[in-house]
Amino acid sequence: MNAVNPFSDTVTALYKDHHGWLHGWLRSKLGCSQRAADLAHDTFERLWKAGATPALEQPRAYLTVIAKRLAINQFRRQALEQAYLEVLAQQHEQYAPSAEDQVAAIEALAEIWRLLDGMPERRRKVFLMAQFEGLPHAEIARRLGTTLNVVHKEAAAALQHCYLAIYSEAAPETARPPR
Predict the structure, then answer these.
(1) 78: which of 84, 105, 148, 157 is 20 to 30 A away, CA to CA?
(2) Can you provide one Gene Ontology molecular function annotated for this UniProt record (predicted)?
């Protein structure tokens, strides 16, 4: 006897009712049918992985928000990869990494981006400002218009997020930070 899964039925209905529209909308925005198909697929995959779908009064608006966010992340990732490739192109051949090293570096950058993408927006901003721009927490608080205490908490949570992501994939039994 098969159990009825209302979540599965909801996502299936959303897919049947709106996939064609979403693909067309994305194609008109991106100018590429293949990229639109990939992004439409990723949108429904993200919806599926979320595990719960709220009652939607405007499902197309909801799907559009997910698709826009995925597109922005994709463009950011491509810009990061392109910047890396431009730096490589400027290096002298003697010092340029091998093709294998280039692929490994791009994969590492994609993994870093995936890790950052898993953080809430404010936490990601705090992390990037502190770790990559080298800003002190007081300056981050000023720029974000928040308190120093919030910045401290977000920075700690971001570091914990990174630690858990790295060590839980390497060895699940070591995923907890030491006490």
Answers:
(1) 157
(2) DNA binding
